[in-house]
Amino acid sequence: MSDQASEDAVSLAELLETGIAALKGLIPLIWLQSKIPPIQFLIGGVVVLLATFLFTISPPHNPAEPPIIKPRVPVIGHLIGLLRSQVNYFSDLHTKSHLPIATLPIGHRKLYVIFDASLQQAALKARDMDAQSFMVDFVPRIFGIRQGTIDRLLGRDGVHPNIMADMEHVFKVALSGDNLNHLAGTTLGTMADTLNGIDEKTGLDVPNLFLWIQGLVGRATAKALWGKEHNPYRDEDVLDAQWEFESNMGPLVLGVLPRLIARKAYLARKKIQSALIPYYRSSFDQRDASVSEFVRARSQLLRKYDLPVDELAKNEVSITLVATTNALSTLYWCIAETWVRPDVLAEIRTEAWRAVVAPLLEKQQSEDGDTATKDSTSTNLAPGNISEITITAGPSLESKCPLLASCFRESIRLASQIVTARRVLKDTLISGADKRTYLLKAETNVMMPAKVVHRDVATWGDDAEEFNARRFLAIQGQGVRFENSTGNTEADRQQRNMKAAFVPFGGGKHLCPGRHFAFTENLAFMAALALGFEIDGLQRERLRMGDSKRGETAKPLPGMEGGPVALRKRRGWEGVKWEFVC
Ligand code: HEM
């Protein structure tokens, strides 16, 4: 039992004892005076005792803390709600309470949930709130590593320093600049091979678009991460185990009999770890030059902490998970939502043609000495006699394809069901846009559900639940960031509210370091797909978003992935070979 758990057990036992002792002396006296039959008295006594116990164990609450939402079933009601509805429970609570922030008592502990965007931003920026305390509780259970391993990484063994600052540096360096370009370029290279391999005449039948994208992104990202030669995920069974693990890992968090209660995730994890252990034992992470900096620098740092190599390998199951799970679902929604809107798709094709093909045609004409100026705003979007199209992925593509970028953001706004979590380290005050201040007590967990702020009608308008391809056009600037408005008009305020309420990548010092990779990969692939391919048969009425259980980017409901489709090269584009550079 962990220290915290045993402390909890002691305080519960003490409370019980005190309650019983207090009642003990009174019981005979009350019974003698009441003349109630003994059996009824006994039942009544148990009820009173239970009620007293339940009342006594409510956590203390300071009026400066966020207001309490009382559960319908005392003490365990919120726990039941969370187990039953998972992250949707937070949306339900917000719909019923309309509170900006709340305290949820659970047993004799409590949890804060922040529903308001400006308060979420304040919490993400607060100094004395951190994410790593969650690692202590959950990482060993999810990845099946020893508690001692995590203690060593967090500097609790008294020998090593806390790894987190160095790890954050690794994330930053490995997922930016040349390393980002290399990772994204290699991933997109494998994705291009798939596009180029589609038969000109017969096309490709895709029974399930989501699974096709999952396989495409998974294979390409894993190869780019782990290297060309020894990639542990090149065995399709290992990649399938990755999806099996990801979909069923929830109950592992409980840390109770994982082999029984989380059997699917347990077996899938074992399969992946069996592939990763020989990889790390052979030091392919350091020896193979084609391995990404993300994998290489992480394990180099972990090796400095003298982790047994098998523990290191087990821990690295997280890498493919973070690099694929949200990015591939976002790509799926972006493709699906765009292709069922022919007007939006046509505009995206025009944008992409101007950004990618028109410059190539102009270059070719000037090389051929063709002086007749061609109109680069032409709507005749054939590739001419160009047989190789290289798309330069990255911020310049984004700025030249604003509608495509808007669709990407809109997809992630609707699909993100992420709940960013922090633990309060010291008592902290936060205040939001209405200047009200709330006290958050130390040692309390804080949950910030993105779905609530991403679908807030006051921020996004009456169509907050709908896909609006152009929603972000007005507020997005150049590059990945929104323009920062300091003005005081209603439009400026609206822009600031939207910016604060767009939190798919979390924030503060843990802001997702892979967001540029996700943008680069998704936008470039979308541009190639829009220019060169048709997706026949996609049915709007057979597209339905599921609820994410763990709090990640939502997948489609099984059977509601848009129906079977056929990918086909567009007329006039059959001979084009696609390439990407970053
Ligand atoms: C659409 C795609 C993605 C979404 C929506 C997403 C979302 C998130 C979120 C919400 C967090 C937690 C942030 C916080 O606690 O404040 C996070 C952390 C992280 N993400 Fe992503 N992510 C995406 C893609 C990626 C990719 C492609 C990679 C790697 C190649 C990646 C690597 C990471 C890492 C390493 C962290 C941990 C950062 C830390 O704890 O300091 N993510 N991501």
TrEMBL record:
Keywords: Heme, Iron, Membrane, Metal-binding, Monooxygenase, Oxidoreductase, Transmembrane, Transmembrane helix. PROSITE patterns: CYTOCHROME_P450. It holds the Pfam family p450. GO terms for molecular function: heme binding; iron ion binding; monooxygenase activity; oxidoreductase activity, acting on paired donors, with incorporation or reduction of molecular oxygen. It comes from the Eukaryota. Its cofactor is heme. Heme binds at C512. The chain crosses the membrane at residues 12-32, 39-57. The keyword Transmembrane applies. Belongs to the cytochrome P450 family. PANTHER family: P450, PUTATIVE (EUROFUNG)-RELATED. This is Cytochrome P450.
